[in-house]
Fold this protein.
Amino acid sequence: MEKCVYCGKNLPEKPLKAKVHTRSFDVCCEDCKIAAEKYVGRDKRFKTALYLVIFLGGIGFIVSAMFCSGRYAMLAAYLGQTVAGLALFFLPYPVTSFETFHNMSIKGVTMLCRLIGAGLAVWGIVLLILL
């Protein structure tokens, strides 16, 4: 049985359509339709920012490996990890193709991104404190 692209619940007999760029996806109710369309709008606005911030976090790792030694190397690496985690938590828009939501709902992707982001950020902060 087909699932709602936003919440992942089974679709009713006559599902609604949420417009995503030039395509439409099935949703189970008006609330999911509105939420899916809002997610797509925010995705369009913030995806580049997410990738840029994660890239900057990765630069922290590269800087730590190439130019730092000892305590400063770890500081740059942990800061990079924390920045990347915060980016995933606050900007959960990692999907490049909306067909992905047939496998995992928008709510599921958002929750997974936030869990991974929170884990990375918290662990990075703990490591910074222990440094």
User: Anything to note?
Assistant: The two ends are 51 Å apart (CA to CA). The first strand starts at residue 16 and ends at 20. The longest helix spans residues 30-67. Strands lie at 16-20, 23-27.
